[in-house]
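Renewal narrative, Specific Aim 1. Our central claim is that a sequence can be written position by position from structural information alone. The example that follows is taken directly from our test logs and has not been curated for this report. It begins with the structure tokens describing the chain, in the order in which they were read.
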């Protein structure tokens, strides 16, 4: 056993426990959705640093910090400047779900992008798993990340900045500060947030827009809970329901309350994971919001723990494209092995 002090209370916990596990044992409520009361610890891998607590006088992520004899933990102490793990500052030639389709030319960079570490989902076919499930990158303050991102943008010769992951929205104070600084340093740049939308509450969206976000791509994984749980790897149906509902509500709120923000929606496709009929139902729901919202269909391919998946063929994705157009969507693009199919049914670039 290891003796530690938590909020002035001396207790013993099993040796080898993480601080998070010790807090759970003591009865602290650990939450995975920010609307719930308790200590928000969404990624569990030390990437997002949303769970950072004052441990022996220093900010450390509770999900990965191991208890040590005599350790002192403060759950309500001020954290100071937020930090999180960030990697992959680079130019991007194809953009993301929230990148307007007409910008893709194949001739050069569209955006400068960075990838934040940690994710609140556990998608077994995750294409960015190195960022999602590892603490990849460097521990950066918003100021350090903004300087790096601004320099990357200059080197790429673009006026678009994308923040991806992992899931970039997990550490809210960090992201808001990062976007504000990017806006100050890049007054005419478009700032694009790439997200799964699962924790985007209305007040969070308002704060992102106020900070300077101009474009957003929300990757809606499914319409049905059973499909969502299979795609995301979540086992808690209640949590999955809350995540899925939050993401769909975020789309509607962004469309209705912030029409100046470019909104793109991602839909996954692989018949091993989601049916054509569910894709059609998703399209019909999006049409009920606005048929002109850009919808990008992502061809889920073999990756991470789902090496058994077979990537949908170009022709299958073209079929999906026309199915969604028949549902009433006017701006459908599809990712394929040959490139991106644009709204007119032809390859872009």
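The sequence written for that structure reads:
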């Amino acid at each position: 056993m290891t003796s530690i002090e938590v909020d002035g209370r001396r207790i013993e916990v099993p040796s080898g426990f993480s601080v998070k596990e010790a807090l759970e044992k003591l009865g602290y409520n650990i939450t995975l959705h920010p609307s719930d009361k308790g200590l928000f610890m969404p990624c569990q891998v030390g990437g997002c640093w949303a769970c950072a607590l004052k441990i022996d006088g220093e900010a450390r992520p509770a999900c990965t910090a191991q208890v040590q004899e005599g350790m002192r933990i403060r759950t309500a102490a001020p954290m100071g400047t937020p930090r999180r793990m960030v990697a992959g500052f680079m130019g991007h030639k194809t953009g993301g779900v929230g990148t307007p389709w007409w910008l893709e030319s194949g001739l050069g960079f569209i955006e400068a992008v960075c990838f934040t570490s940690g994710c609140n989902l556990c998608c077994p076919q995750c294409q960015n798993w190195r960022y999602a499930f590892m603490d990849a990158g460097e521990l950066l303050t918003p100021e350090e990340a903004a300087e790096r991102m601004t320099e990357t943008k200059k080197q790429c010769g673009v006026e678009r900045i994308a923040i991806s992951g992992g899931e970039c929205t997990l550490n809210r104070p960090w992201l808001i500060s990062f976007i504000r600084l990017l806006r100050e340093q890049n007054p005419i740049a478009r700032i694009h947030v790439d997200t799964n939308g699962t924790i985007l509450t209305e007040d969070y969206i308002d704060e992102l827009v106020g900070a300077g976000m101009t474009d957003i791509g929300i990757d809606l994984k499914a319409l049905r809970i059973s499909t969502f749980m299979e795609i995301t790897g979540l086992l808690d149906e209640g949590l999955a329901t809350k995540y899925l509902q939050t993401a769909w509500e975020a789309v509607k709120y962004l469309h209705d309350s912030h029409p100046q923000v470019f909104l793109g929606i991602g839909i996954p496709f692989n018949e091993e994971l989601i049916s054509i009929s569910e894709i059609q139902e998703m399209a019909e729901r999006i049409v009920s919001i606005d048929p002109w919202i850009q919808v990008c269909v992502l061809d889920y391919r073999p990756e991470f723990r789902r090496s058994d998946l077979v990537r949908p063929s170009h022709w299958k994705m073209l079929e999906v494209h026309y199915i969604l157009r028949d549902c009433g969507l006017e701006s459908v693009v599809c990712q394929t092995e040959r490139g991106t199919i644009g709204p007119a049914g032809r390859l872009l670039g």
